Amino acid sequence: MAKNIFSGTGVALITPFRKQETIDFSKLEELIDHVINSGVDYIVALGTTSEAATMSDSERAALCQFIIETVNGRKPIVLGMGGNNTRAVTDAISQTNFDGISGILSVCPYYNKPQQRGLIQHFKNIADVSPVPVILYNVPGRTSCNMSAETTLQLAEECPNIVGIKEASGNMSQVMEILRCKPANFSVISGDDALTLPMMSLGVCGVISVMANALPKEMSDMVHYALKGDFKKALPLHNRMLPLMNAIFEEGNPGGIKALLEIEGRINNQLRLPLSKVSKTLYNKMSTLYNEAFPSK
Q1: Which residues are catalytic?
Q2: How far is it, in rounded angstroms, from Cα 46 to Cα 55?
Q3: Whether the Cβ atoms of residue 14 and residue 254 lie closer than 8 Å to each other
Q4: DSSP count for the chain of H helices, then E strands
Q5: Which partner from 36, 200, 217, 228 sits 20 to 30 angstroms from 210, CA to CA?
């Protein structure tokens, strides 16, 4: 690819629900317009933050189509497509219409605990059938499966259609090893909001962000400053957001970010079981942090 369209700030979109737990498409449209107008670089649809795991196939299809139509070519869209059954994932990719989709984000297989050689074959099969670029997603805190730096680098070297990795292991040594040895056209993307700035100082090209749902301009400004090497301007933004970045994950994602979006007045704080709302204590804490850090919002 001549240009890395997955550089900068990608926002892992939440899914607003009504009190009846149906998808609130009007609030989603408002949110999409808000994050685009605030400077995010691309949209991630049907990722973990979207609660896609609690949706039916028809809901996921409707949500994806709505996001494509609402974005309307203004920004690239990355579609979450992963699982722990390789054949099911490749079949789903083969049956998907990718009009309006610029890439897929594919999580490491969860629950099965595959060995590294299994991960290599899993992602090679996905890359072989995907008509769009593939971004790997390593998040061992959710999957109980860490993709090693060696595995990531092998996939980067051997699969031209695997163009990057969202690294959410929290293991900075692993991230540095990938950055040290990766091909020049392979992107490493932060999967941790709070670690984004230090990771970018090492060469990471941006973030797929949860916080960008609520603070899209601040996250985008911080990332864009860092991409220019202007850490003097990026650091105050990082420090301003850091307490909230930590707070929204205290009781899990997307419970925290949905509470913060309600504090901002953008959505109803509604989740689908087995997820539940954050505690009143955490909600009040986030409200206080938000009003202290962003009194003019």
Answers
A1: 137, 166
A2: 10
A3: yes
A4: 12, 8
A5: 228
